[in-house]
Prior knowledge:
Elements (H helix, E strand, L loop, with lengths): L3 E2 L14 E4 L4 E5 L9 E6 L2 E2 L11 E5 L2 E4 L30 E3 L7 E5 L1 E8 L2 E7 L12 E8 L7 E8 L7 E7 L2 E5 L4 E6 L2 E6 L5 E9 L3 H7 L2 E9 L8 E10 L4
Antiparallel strand pairs: 1-2, 2-3, 3-4, 4-6, 5-9, 6-7, 8-14, 10-11, 11-12, 12-13, 13-20, 14-19, 15-16, 16-17, 17-20, 18-19
Amino acid sequence: RWRTTRRAGPAAGASGPDPAVWLPRVQLLVARERPGADRDGLALAFKGGHNGERHNHLDVGSYTVALDGCPLVVDVGKPTYTAASFGPDRYRAWPLRSDWHNVPEPGGRGQLPGERYRARGADVRITADGAACTVDLAAAYPAGLVRSWRRTVRLVRTAGGAGYVLVRDDVRQLPAGGALLRHVLAGEVAVDGDAGTALVAARGRVLRMSWEPGLLAARVEHRVLVDPQLRASWGHSLTRLTLATRDAAPGTGLDVSVRFEAAEPPH
């Protein structure tokens, strides 16, 4: 089926958006922290699928996070189309490549175009406490680059209302060069690499990211937007926060998580 909706939280007759929706054919999960709320709290979208879709981006395993309706961990979206957008040079456009999506890059290598480059083994869990999806991303990359890359993206609801999103990457054998975890962020970004935290702020909302700094080193880049379509969506610029594995020997495993939760605006 194109759509399978499973409710968690409010009764089936409650108004407002579904608390979680899984679209199996395109492997898209959308989940909200507060069931029945259109914009309040955290909202997560996660994409499995493959890289042979119409108007494709190289984004298998990518996710976005919004807070109170404000997108903070984002998908850049499509730039203004040109003739090159529909030919062999399509992926020279940076917004379409995997290095500007929220996906890993094993050995610093990006994903490849084509339907065979896909997520495998999707496992979706939707309960009253949240929603999660696990996929293996290894087949989205050049053959033999990585044996297994299991990514689990989870939205967790808590009794106290302080929900969070957790992204876990469990890798069987890292290639030479370790791995890069990309995050495209919209708004003002303040990073403390030693503490393993970042604050992403826009429109009065603040999202806190956290990771294990002993395992992942942070690097920040800002990209000025010149395309009018992208500027209309995001303003002057976007930020890319890359978390690179530290001292990862080829053939070793990796198990790391990045957490996202609401934070108070700084005074």
